[in-house]
Design a protein that fits this description.
Elements (H helix, E strand, L loop, with lengths): L9 E4 L15 H14 L3 E5 L5 H13 L4 E7 L2 H11 L6 E8 L2 H8 L3 H18 L2 E7 L6 H13 L4 E6 L6 H14 L7 E6 L6 H10 L4 E4 L13 H10 L16 H12 L20 H9 L27 H10 L9 H14 L5 H12 L8 E8 L12 E9 L2 E9 L2 H13 L2 E11 L8 E11 L2 E11 L2 H15 L16
Parallel strand pairs: 1-2, 1-8, 2-3, 3-4, 4-5, 5-6, 6-7, 7-8
Antiparallel strand pairs: 9-10, 10-11, 12-13, 13-14
Bound molecules: 3-methyl-2-oxobutanoic acid (KIV) and zinc ion.
The site of 3-methyl-2-oxobutanoic acid has 9 residues, from strand 5 and strand 6.
């Protein structure tokens, strides 16, 4: 595949930047590195690794990803301010000639008036100067006129012209609030292609939010109109209703070749499912079962008529094969006698890659599970990989053990009989405490709060059986509202166990250990730009 091919669509992944803006989706350094490694294996062209000026942790993560990367361009976001650009340029520098800085400034009337309090000419000047300055530090500069889809087209063209003249190699046209409509958005791209002098010196990029569920449709319409970079996230995670979903936009262009003649991307489709699972696990944001391409039901054929048709010829009801997106369809069973070679072979067949460093931890978890569970399915194995990777350097508090009991039934006082005794450790010190609650999970939350000295409640709780059968592992994904030192944050957590109270305790503690990432961070949307 030739990356200079004019029909090659550049896939710009912003899971680690816009995706991390999803409430509760904060990630630690090891997790961001793992996602970046997976994105490179998946074949994305550009990884937007973060917003370096937002916090020291963000800066360090972007820098570490730039150092560890081997083939993708690594991009850091910056407002059109010298201080932001300096930080972003410094963070991406270790990527060498693959370093990119992404500068943005809002251009729509509503943002000019209410957020920036700036006139049009001031916006053009600030954008031009920001790009020119960034260009003195890094060669590959992208510019985004934030809220472009609600900006007057003539003014948008003026800004785009100015930043291309100042040296921007990519001009991104964000549909920041997900207001765009496919035909209008495509018209806007065509308008820019015909009204901006020298537009061919830059790649036109699109960045669509999903507030009306149109992010993928808008991105596809823009590609048909000539855009050649799509900004997207794994599972479509992102601010509010999220961003354009990478797996959907890529598969739509691939399956509907008739609509996208000659168009290619560098994505290895067979790694889509593994990447989706990893991001679900790390962010604690579960997918709805019917999510296109990678959801649990995407290839499940429940109705008898469908099953009959699919068995005769899968194309009756399947427009792409599960294998083409890496969904594990075999139920080849591993058990306690299976060794490292068998596990590695299964992982390879599923397109899941585990580093040598993570392999011993994975095998330990596999053996422990195989002792408890007769048959270890593909889904179990993927869940174990996620568990081995997740929270690698996170554990401030670790869960040693838990004992819980609950009375069931409608009798008076039965619920209040739920109790939990928990032992947690921190820096080698163990603390045991017990509490009663409205149910075993409530009792667990109360003990953990007391031991960790915080206030907290569960806002959202989901339990999913990883595979079939009474001994299936339960995966708990929750969002907790936590308060410490007067600051309230919403944090995601995830836990896996064959016992659901145990999985809940792991998930809640995961959220507690994660709360530090949310505190004191600069939000690029609310921070003034100039
Ligand atoms: O949605 C948006 O406008 C953004 C910009 C920073 C590109 O995320
Ligand atoms: Zn965005």
């Amino acid at each position: 595949m030739n990356p200079n091919d004019p029909n090659r669509v550049i896939i710009f992944d912003t899971t680690l930047r816009d995706g991390e803006q999803s409430p509760g989706a904060s990630m630690n350094l090891a997790e961001k590195l793992e996602i970046a490694r997976t994105l490179e294996l998946l074949g994305v062209d550009v990884i937007e690794a973060g917003f370096p000026v937002a916090s020291v942790d963000d800066f360090n993560a972007v820098q570490a990803i730039a150092k560890a990367s081997t083939r993708a361009r690594i991009c850091g976001l910056a407002r059109s301010l010298k201080g932001d650009i300096d930080r972003a340029a410094e963070a991406v520098k270790p990527a060498g000639d693959r370093a990119r800085v992404h500068v943005f400034l809002a251009t729509s009337a509503i943002h000019r008036t209410f957020k920036l309090n700036k006139a049009k000419d001031e916006i053009v000047k600030q954008a031009r100067e920001a790009v020119a300055y960034a260009k003195t530090l890094i060669d590959d500069i992208e510019f985004s006129p934030e809220d472009a889809s609600r900006t007057e087209p003539e003014f948008l063209a003026e800004v785009v012209q100015a930043v291309i003249d100042a040296g921007a190699k990519t001009v991104n046209i964000p549909d920041t609030v997900g207001y765009g409509y496919p035909s209008d958005y495509a018209d806007l791209i065509t308008y820019l292609r015909t009204h901006v002098k020298g537009i061919d010196r830059a790649v036109i990029s699109v960045h669509c939010h999903n507030d009306l569920g149109l992010a993928v449709a808008n991105s596809l319409a823009a590609v048909r109109a000539g855009a050649r970079q799509v900004e997207c996230t794994i599972n479509g995670i992102g601010e509010r209703a999220g961003n354009c979903a990478l797996e959907e936009v890529v598969m739509a262009m691939r399956v509907r070749k008739d609509q996208f003649p000659g168009i290619t991307t560098g994505i290895d489709g067979q790694r889509l499912y593994g990447a989706s699972r990893l991001v679900q696990s790390i962010t604690g944001l579960p997918l709805q079962r019917n999510k296109a391409v990678v959801g649990d039901n995407a290839f499940a054929h429940e109705s008898g008529i469908h099953q009959h048709g699919v068995l005769k010829n899968p194309e009756c009801y399947e427009i792409m094969t599960p294998a083409s997106v890496g969904v594990p369809m075999t139920n080849l069973v591993l058990g306690k006698h299976s060794g490292k070679a068998a596990v590695e072979k299964r992982l390879q067949a599923m397109g899941v890659s585990v580093t040598d460093a993570d392999m011993p931890k994975l095998m330990e978890a596999f053996k422990a599970l195989a002792d408890r569970k007769k048959e270890v399915y593909d889904g179990d194995l993927i869940a174990l990989v996620e568990e081995a990777v997740r929270g690698k350097t996170l554990a401030v508090w670790s869960l040693d053990w838990i004992h819980s009991s609950a009375a069931a039934g409608a009798g008076a006082g039965a619920a209040a009989l739920a109790t939990a005794t928990v032992r947690l450790s921190k820096a080698g010190e163990a603390v045991i405490d017990a509490a009663t609650g409205d149910g075993p999970v409530d009792a667990v939350v109360k003990v953990i709060n007391r031991i960790c000295g915080i206030e907290g409640t569960i806002e959202d709780y989901r339990l999913r059986a990883v595979t079939k059968g009474g001994d299936a592992q339960g995966e708990v994904s929750l969002r907790a509202k936590l308060t410490a030192n007067g600051q309230e944050v919403s944090v995601g957590g995830k836990g896996l166990s064959t016992d659901i109270v145990h999985a809940s305790a792991i998930a809640y503690l995961d959220a507690v250990n994660r709360m530090g990432f949310q505190v004191g961070r600069l939000d690029y949307r609310t921070a003034a730009n100039g």
